[in-house]
Amino acid sequence: MADYKREHWVELYQAALLELDDNNLTSCIEKASVAVQQRLQVIGTGANSAEERQALADAAWALRALSKAERVSGGKT
Predict the structure, then answer these.
(1) Taking 90 as the threshold, does the pLDDT of residue 12 lie above it?
(2) Which residue range is the domain that position 63 belongs to?
(3) pTM of the prediction?
(4) Which of 16, 21, 31, 62 has the maximum number of C-beta atoms within 10 A of its C-beta?
């Protein structure tokens, strides 16, 4: 198991993916997106962080897709 899986951004990301309450989804997506961006800034481009950078990129993409789907559905996911 990669060390990054215990980072706070992972918890927020998973919470956004699993959120079922339309009233909370936007907030969860925003919190997770901010955490992902902040973590990207912290880890930089070091060779030791390649796996986590890829996971962060994947999470950012998924959160954008979830956000777009949420907007298209008008909050009715």
Answers:
(1) yes
(2) 3-72
(3) 0.87
(4) 16
Q: How many domains does the chain have?
A: 1
DSSP sequence for the chain:
--GGGGSHHHHHHHHHHH---HHHHHHHHHHHHHHHHHHHHHHTT-GGGHHHHHHHHHHHHHHHHHHHHHHHTTT--
| Burial of 68 from C-beta contacts in 10 A (0-12 / 13-18 / 19+) | exposed
- What pLDDT is stored for residue 74 in this prediction? 72
In a domain, 54, yes or no: yes
Q: What is the pLDDT of residue 76?
A: 59
The mean predicted confidence, pLDDT, of the chain is: 91
